[in-house]
């Protein structure tokens, strides 16, 4: 496993160095593919189920809490190390065990949570824009390290190939 990871890293570094057009792109299933259809169906099923659960009397919050967990994780992933206060605020407001307990006791204020999430998204930007920003940052990092990689590529590839050979059983 470690050898495969090393070979993959070596191949990636080699591709970055040699291919001036190399860019990180989001994985998107091809149009009309089974994978894309399954993704779309699952997406619709989730939102349909969420709508049904929230319209029940009393509402069921299982899917909503899973969605809040994903939103929390995404919001936290966009923060930089210096954003301690924002991190604390997100952790405090989106305290999932507390939210679960409030839901079980009929005390969940979904409106307040929604306003918090929308406000936080507004302060950080819209998810799709942030995803594009992450891609742009990754591509900027790749283009920034390309000159350094070119300087060190021969030595790096030689060392990685030697490590690969040392881990392979003799034949």
UniProtKB/TrEMBL annotation:
InterPro entries (UniProt xref): Tcp11
Transmembrane region(s): none
Coiled-coil region(s): none
One GO-annotated biological process of the protein: signal transduction
Similarity comment text for this entry: Belongs to the TCP11 family.
Full protein name: (Atlantic silverside) hypothetical protein
């Amino acid at each position: 496993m470690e050898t495969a990871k090393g070979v993959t890293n070596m191949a990636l570094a080699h591709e970055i160095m040699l291919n001036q057009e190399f860019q990180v792109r989001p994985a998107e299933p091809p149009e009309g593919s089974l994978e894309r259809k399954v993704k779309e169906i699952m997406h619709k099923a989730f939102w349909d189920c969420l709508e049904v659960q929230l319209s029940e009397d009393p509402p069921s919050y299982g899917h909503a809490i899973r969605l809040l967990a994903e939103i929390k994780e995404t919001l936290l992933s966009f923060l930089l190390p210096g954003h301690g206060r924002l991190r604390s605020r997100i952790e405090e407001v989106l305290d999932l065990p507390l939210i679960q307990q409030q839901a079980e006791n009929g005390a969940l204020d979904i409106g307040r949570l929604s306003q918090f999430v929308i406000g936080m998204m507004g302060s950080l930007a819209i998810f799709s824009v942030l995803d594009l920003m992450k891609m742009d940052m990754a591509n900027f990092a790749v283009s920034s390290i390309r000159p350094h990689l070119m300087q060190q590529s021969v030595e790096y590839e030689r060392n990685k190939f030697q490590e690969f050979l040392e881990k392979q059983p003799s034949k």
